[in-house]
Amino acid sequence: MENAKILLVDDEKAIVQLIEMVLRKEGFRHIYTANNGKEALELIKRHTIDIILLDVMLPDQTGFDLCPQIRKASDAHIIFLTARTSDLDVLTGFATGGDDYVTKPFNPLEIAARVKAKRGNARHTG
């Protein structure tokens, strides 16, 4: 069983369900989900999160705007998951505090592999 606490932040329910299903099949049990930035920040304040999978296009704010707010409350490893593929978007993701950047469409097994690779290097060891 994987002990890493993972937060999925995406307003596309099908993507959240798919990633959550794959992560659970890979042994992860502590998975939280949020559909917008406000929910994500509330969960981060209540739980010690190790890895955050963060969409850029959220209904209440962008993931780029949310990332620095997350950094004030958490040292979690942040992986952007987004359809925004320009070099500027990728650089913005890193500049705002992201640790990794994956573009949609993506292979859910690749996401699971990245989470597994990061869990040992996560800034929190919760």
Automatic annotation (TrEMBL):
Domain of life (superkingdom): Bacteria
Any Pfam family hit: Response_reg
Organism: Paenibacillus aceti
CDD domains hit by this protein: REC_OmpR
InterPro entries: CheY-like_superfamily, Sig_transdc_resp-reg_receiver, WalR-like
Entry protein name: Response regulatory domain-containing protein
Keywords: DNA-binding, Phosphoprotein, Transcription, Transcription regulation
Modified residues (4-aspartylphosphate): 55
Response regulatory domain sequence ranges: 5-119
Keyword Transcription regulation among UniProt keywords: yes
